[in-house]
Design goal:
The complex is a heterotrimer of chains A (about 190), B (about 170) and C (about 350). In chain A, about 30% of the residues lie in helices and about 15% in strands. By secondary structure, chain A is α+β, with helices and mostly antiparallel strands. Chain A has a domain of about 130 residues: Alpha-Beta Plaits, CATH 3.30.70. The mean pLDDT of chain A is about 85. Chain B is mostly helical and about 170 residues long. Chain B is built from 7 helices and no strands. Chain B folds into 3 domains: about 80 residues, NADH-ubiquinone/plastoquinone oxidoreductase chain 6, subunit NuoJ (Four Helix Bundle (Hemerythrin (Met), subunit A)), CATH 1.20.120.1200; about 40 residues; about 40 residues. Chain B is globular and about 50 Å long. Chain C is mostly helical. Chain C has 12 helices and 2 strands, in the order αααββααααααααα. In chain C, strands 1-2 form a two-stranded antiparallel sheet. Chain C starts with 9 loop residues before the first helix and ends with a helix. The N terminus of chain C is likely disordered. The chains are: A alpha+beta (about 190), B mainly alpha (about 170), C mainly alpha (about 350). Chains in contact: A-C, B-C.
Chain lengths: ~190, ~170, ~350
Amino acid sequence: MQLTNRSKQVDRRPMNWAEKMYMPAILKGMKITLGHFFKKKVTINFPEETRPFSPVFRGLHILNRDEEGRENCTACGLCAVACPAEAITMDAAERLPGEENLYREEKYAAKYEINMLRCIFCGLCEEACPKDAIYLTETFAPANYSRKSFIYGKDNLVIPDPKKDPEGYKKAKGLIDERKAKANQQTA
Amino acid sequence: MNITEILFWFLTALALGGSLMMVFSKNPVYSVLWLIVVFFAISGHYILLNAQFLAIVNIIVYAGAIMVLFLFVIMLMNLNADNEPQKNKWLKIAGVIAGGCLMLVLVSAILRTEGLKEQTLSLSGSTGLIKQLGKTLFTDYVLPFEISSVLFLSAMVGAVVIGKKED
Amino acid sequence: MNTILLAIDLPLVLEKVILIALVVTVSMVVAMYATWGERKVAAFIQDRLGPNRAGPLGLFQPLADGLKLFMKEEIIPNASNKVLFILGPSLAMLTALLTSAVIPWGDKIEMFGRTISLQIADVNIGILYVFGVVSLGVYGIMIGAWASNNKFSLMGGVRAASQIISYELAMGLSLIALLMTTGTLSLSEMVHQQQTGWWNVIKQPVGFFIFLICAFAECNRTPFDLAEAENELIGGYHSEFSSMKLGFYLFSEYINMFISSAIMATLYFGGYDIIPFYDESAWGLSTNLMALLGFLALFVKILVLIFVFMWVRWTIPRFRYDQLMNLGWKSLIPISLVWMLITAVFILATR
């Protein structure tokens, strides 16, 4: 059955005198390799340049803060419910008086953990979140020696506080905006 | 003692020592390697006699080709000191007597040859250089030269016949 | 090389010692950077970039490789023959370096009121000396292979030996045709002939071609690297070697490549002659400057030939062993014999 029109019948005729010399074929091969010598190289010098991710790439999670540095997450648990790999666990706590500058609403996540070994990076948590709190970025989990280190707590997930580290906050926000723009592009 | 003499004695010691080691080595591979050392020492002697062509041909033909084949065969047969069969005592004695006789003949021949020393010294001109050698070989000695090439041809034909597969 | 020369002449000895040291150093450095070049050429032919991390353009890569080889654990197999196991790589290295003695690396230079020839030994049998040393090159491989006490190593050594002996014949026959046109065995004399006249490659195209193929085979380079065919023989003759002993084997291959390129440049491409059909002495430059330019010309030729070695390696797959033997005995030897005959007839006809 012919699938493409590029297939070629194998030539099994006995070689003629000129072909038995091999030289024409060898010279042809040498010409091809010399041609490749001057071709543009396909290598990407990894640490300096990175391969561009596809627009739907999903990497490590981050937990969002608003402009005043308050955490968005209210520990509603929708992400944990949505998660098909059951990688997310959380403990909810009530916001005490005097903590208004830390948490945006009355309830917050005292503990929020994602097991990156279980996570399948499907992005359903991101879609489930009603509070604009969880986003997937374009970094992936670095290698490590212990399983424990792959359980990311709030210290790894929450983005920097704009009051303490405005630079880091800006950068994280940029990532989130990019992510949102790409999501919009997808739906449009 | 000038440098030529020093070299002469060094090469002589090397040649004699190498040949003794070749005979007394238990391992045939060592024997072959010592024989190569002997060939090098002899080539050195040729150079001292200003016979450069002979020296280099000695290395190319003997050390470079024949000994490689020897080594080849010995390595493939994997002859070792351990699995060498014990030789008959009488055979050993016969060998010693035969070798001693040959040595006696050689020594007496060398001792009786008149003017060998002068002949050797006279070689130190340009006789051994390739130009003179070639001219002599293709004018004065052309017949023996051609006959020896016929000998080689017959040897080659013989090798082909032996190497040919039986039909 | 004759008896009179052997009387001690201290400045001459000093001059030669310095020259030998220089030539050996240059061979080593070129071989070192040939490994870098090999990897770069391989990469470029395969649309990659090659080593580019150690230093600019990866230029310190050979140093890193050398350091790595020195740092590696030295393993001598228990059942091996220890003396020969060490002798093998040393011999390979020695024979690789020996040939450089008769290659004229340039014309004469004048220094400290002496005229110094840039050739270590101008023997009148230069090309035969090269041939002799080449025929010895196989010992390093064979001894190392046998001493490893490994069947695959031995197989590689045996392959190398029979291959080198077979291709030496065709090489010698192609050289005879060359010697008939030049009428001399001395390498410096051949270069002198080519300086004003034609390069030998124009007179001896077929001879050069056969010599080139045989040089590939003698250096154990692809397509003739049967002795280290990984898919059949693990690592071939150097399977059991580690650390710098392995390094010596690998290194001697590159030195062989450098030296055989130098020999081909000298024999067929005019050695240190800069432009064919042209007498460079008409420029009226000083002796030292001419010698420098000549050396550079020779060096460029050598580098181009080394590139050809690599280019062929990364183009042509390995032969099968019977194909190798057929090529050597049934094609190259008859062709070179016929070419020898043609040359002889031509010389007689034009005399």
